[in-house]
Queue: 2 jobs
Job 1
Amino acid sequence: MLEIKNLSASIAGKPILDKVNLTINKGEIHALLGPNGSGKTTLLMVIMGMPRYEVTAGTITFQGKDITKATIDERARAGIGLAFQRPPVVRGVTTRQMVEICSGSKDEAQTKALATRLSLEPMLERDINQGFSGGEAKRAEMLQLLAQNPDFAMFDEPESGVDLDNMAIVGGAMAEILETKEMRRTGDRNKAGLIVTHTGHILEFVNADFGHIFMHGSIVCNGNPRDLFAEIRENGYEECVRCNKCQK
Amino acid sequence: MSKVTDRLAKKRAEWAKLAETAAAKPAKFGPDIDLTEYVDPADMAEVDTLKSLDKQMREAALYAGVDADETFRSGSYFQVDHTPIYRKVQEAYNGQLEIMSTSEALEKYEWVQDLWWSAVPVDQDKFTAKAELEQTGGYFIHVFAGQKIEKPIQACLLLAESNVSQNVHNLIVIDEGAEAQIITGCTVKNDAAQGIHMGISEFFIRKNASLMFTMIHNWAESFHVRPRSATIVEENGTFINNYILMKPVKSIQMFPSAVLNGDNARARFNTIISGKKDSYIDVGSKAILTGKNTSAESIARTVAYDECAIYARGDLISYVNESKAHLDCRGILFSDKAQIWAIPALAADGAPQAELSHEAAISPIAEEEVEYLQTRGLTKDEAMSTITRGFLNIDIPGLPPALKSYIDHVLDAADKEAL
């Protein structure tokens, strides 16, 4: 579904991503683990096509088409979705409008049903993210992705700033978006996803199939996400660089 | 000659004398205009129903908030050029309000003569002078004491002929304990028309009364507009003024004021302006707080395109300690040839405990907001348009749903036109 080849990118002339290679097939959920500042968010932003990031080398192919130069909305309409870590406040645009934009319809009953499931009904008439708590902002991101129903969904630190109760709701919504709730086997699913996390807590709620450790703008290690986290908890991220087993 | 008519003749002579002194006096703000360029149009015949107006007129009126199908209105006044062609109070509202031309009201009531030019000075400038010396109609809307009029009253001032000067003088009285909403649409039949509209409006909100007044201006690129409005709000009275300008205009200059004379009186000005082409727009609001526990709020949202210049003024002036007022003025510029000047002014005169504040900002739409909407599938232009539309979407507390949906309709229509 998504194929990234030798992707390098910079922001304001400063290189951030360095020859990233990553393939995500239909039905697969990948977790991207790494310390703060390693470039994980940048990778998601570059996949989404944010113009402030300049692709200096490599390609991004989605559903067989080269989208390296496509605009953000072309990628969104092609089936890529992104849940932001810190979504912006958009004054004058309500949560309800955002859901309608995502779903492409003004189905009031559907909007209400989705909002109710995420305990966001009182927020529907409020400007999106205006005065939202951390949990509300994350749930609002899930609400929009559920309405958008992308084939490939990316989640940037979905557990940050969220208490345990909210994490269960967010995790439940992610599982629904990624079809892992009903279909436990990758071969049964039509969706795919990439979850960025540096604590790994969200993986208690959404089962990832593959894990990658991201450091200094590159993938430095691949493996089972749970094993990778166990290793990190014990020896820290630097051990991955030192060990270098994957590269061998 | 009746006693009232006789009295009016004397009053007219006094007003004319004062007006003569200001006949050549330019306005304090805005470009000066040579008023001798404009001619008198032919009189129009009155109509029995607004549905009998020609399609172009009905559409122009509808776009300015005035619905020829009066089902959702309690009463209507319709003036074309110099002629009031229609005024009607819907049957269900008989005995609750009255609508007529101000010329008729002046002939009918002595007290109307006493209110005439009591809020706006007749000698303010050449435009007030012209409206007195050559008045061409205007509406009188009077809501009787204690009446709550749930359906809006509508008034349309339409210009059909080109090169005409429309000099109307309106008088609105909401009597003690009454509540009403008025929609006024000022518009032209033909977008290519030239002309000038001078509109004097004097509002009197009596004790415990409230008025939500919504004015939608749809002028044309060669039109000059010089409204002169003032409102007197008595004890516990509420005045809400919504002003919407979405179409190009040659020049418009107005600075409506609300004087909060009565204790606990409140006023709120909501101004939405989308300036296009080479429009010169100088629009403000002024709240003067003289009663105890009075409060005022002035909210303005302006967007400027093309070569438009917008001057957004806002004065909050307090003379009493127990008073509070806030001004919030924000603008977005969409062209490097456009201008927005936000000019707030606060004054506390002999009132050290008065609380007056303002926020004014002119800034572009944040890129991250546009990108956020793009991630949900909107193109960049659609995202900009959605955010701009939201920016203009002022939250007006107490706005009746019908009026809200109408304002949304006007903004949406203008938005589509801009695209």
Job 2
Amino acid sequence: MAAFEDDLLALLPRLRRFARALARNAADADDLCQVALEKALVGRASWQPGTRMDSWMYRIMRNSWIDTTRSRARAAQTFVDPDAGLGIGADGGAEARVALGEIDAALHTLPDEQREAVALVLIEGLAYKEAAEILDIPMGTLTSRLVRGRQALMAQLGEAA
Amino acid sequence: MSIDPEMLMAYADGELSPLEARRVERAIAADPALGEEVARHRALRARLSGHFAPVAEEPVPDRLAALLRSNSNVVALPVRKPARRIPGWTRWGGAIAASLVLGLFIGQGLQDPGVVRTHGGQLYAAGTLAGALDQQLASNAGAVQVPISFRDARGSYCRVFTSATADGIACRDSQGWALRQTRAGSSAAKTDYAQAGSTDPALMAAAQEMMAGDPLDAGAEAKAKASGWK
């Protein structure tokens, strides 16, 4: 049966887009996709046919991303002063930051919990309820993170009229 | 009655029940600043989804696709190509587009087929669709919603519309609202208790590409409407 793999393959373009909003650069984003796909293949027994595969995959990807950033933060702490700045320790971090556009740069000033809410609702186009379920938080928490993230982005991107 | 920022945002995203939405609309009528905030929320969504839309259009890197192909237990079965996220409607030629779009409007059981007309081989909005494009502001709710308005490179006003029957982008010319983009409606599947949901990111990306400058804010939109979109 290759249907499971086929469905994942069809989802892959959207998963890559979500990863791009979470990670700092395209290379990290595709690494994140790879980790998430490997987890999905190993954990395929936990996939319930008939439920939404996109929600299931977004959740796996988001959890993989948290694992990655945590372990990276631990590794970074042993070498550099945490106050020395974000992005240090990532390979090619400086170039990646130069290449970041205005929108990417603004997104990455948001706290992670706001950025993931913004990514699911505004970039992936999910309903609030779906996003709250993926993030495993109550609706009220989702909307408060979302509104704070958006206000910060509007302020930075000069969206004000 | 005060409207908190979360509620205003949820209104901009079409996440409120009709009852709550009416409350917000009353507040907007009393305070234009609220309407501008709604427009800012929608403009931000359009900008972000437009910015990231190309990622989903890139070819998937081989190493990721290979992960899925090699894992298949069935040897030598070709893997079905992933369904394209954006159908080819963006590139269809005029005649094919015309017949498909007409099929879209009529084939989906719309009782009133008079929402499109042709003029000189170009499809134009007619009937209720043309009415909504003429009259409706982004902050209004209705069977047709018009979340984003902008000017294209030639200076014509264009508007993104969504409805149960069809979504698309229409631009104003001397003959009326020329349909530039159309696809199956996004709000068809919504329940009676939810307003039309988020606008299709692919449609927003298409709007982003056509847009010269930023989307119109509430004030500019009202002014454009008052001048007949000319």
